[in-house]
Amino acid sequence: MPNYRFFVQYDGTRYDGWQRQKNTDRTIQGKLENILLHLFDDTVEVHGSGRTDAGVHAFAQVANFHSPEGAKEIELHRIEEYINAYLPEDISVFGLEAAPPRFHSRLSAVGKTYCYRIYTGKDRPVFARRYVWWLPGKLDEEAMRQAAALLEGTHDYASFCANPKMKKSTVRCVDSLTVRRQGELLIIQAHGNGFLHNMVRILTGTLVQVGLGERPAKEMQELLLAKDRRQAGPAAPAQGLCLESVDYRPAFVPPLEGQGRNIW
Question: Residue 264's pLDDT is what?
Fold first, then answer.
């Protein structure tokens, strides 16, 4: 059964997240699988590199699927054209190509980059409101950078996990957590080997508390040691978060064509 991998780009505003759900048809995975069902006249399971939450966007989500056993061969460009023809206008696929049989978009991933965008201008960002958290006024960016540096590394991030029933390890490696200014945008970028449920949004909400002077930067070490979600800040609103890119070992998975597309 051929294995195909591709990029998915989507505006998550109207959707209940990536993962297929029984009580709604408004998921990215569900939309893709429904289209492939009609293309192959058989059930197809689409795997994503990460399960983005409701309202979260993706610039370059990576996904893969195996065609059903005995399915007719279809040219790659025709598969991509067919999927895009039936997707709503806020979802697009590109860069579809054949993948190694054992490639799995999530299990083969070795790193991910998320960006959170905060708009600090005084005027309401009417046309960007779906993609930023509007926080007019001044944030203490240097204090936020100090706090972010303390949150980098390999730690138990239980305090930054929204799932209280998490049974698997909550230890992750966040090798980069940066805060940078781009005009009236304050961009928080996180890169690591994996992220827990709502982890980037909770990290962001906590850094914003530091920026507002509601808690000191040095408190980050205590939060990590506490392993208690109640001790960290609130989760930042979903619309400011975007999955930017996913890393794979080049020897196993060459870079996919189209990685350079940028909507921002």
Answer: 42
Angle at 105 between CA 100 and CA 107, to 5 degrees: 95
Tell me, yes or no, if the pTM score tops 0.85. Answer: yes
Considering the domain delimited by 3-108, tell me its CATH architecture: 2-Layer Sandwich (3.30)
Parse the chain into domains and list their residue ranges.
3-108, 112-243
Whole-number Cα distances in Å, 101 to 33, 44, 162, 250? 19, 15, 34, 16
Q: Assess whether pLDDT exceeds 90 at residue 263.
A: no
Does domain 112-243 fall under CATH 3.30.70.660? My reply is yes
Kindly name the residue from 41, 53, 123, 247 that is annotated as catalytic.
53
Cβ-Cβ contacts under 8 Å for 160 (sequence gap 6 or more)? 196, 198, 199, 202, 203, 206, 223, 229, 232
What does the block give as tokens for 148?
A: 């972010």
The closest alpha carbon to 50, from 40, 41, 42, 59, belongs to 59
Tokens linked to 36: 């492939």
Mean of per-residue pLDDT scores for the chain: 93
Q: Is 90 a catalytic residue?
A: no
pLDDT at 253: 54
Distance CA 183, CA 100 (A): 42
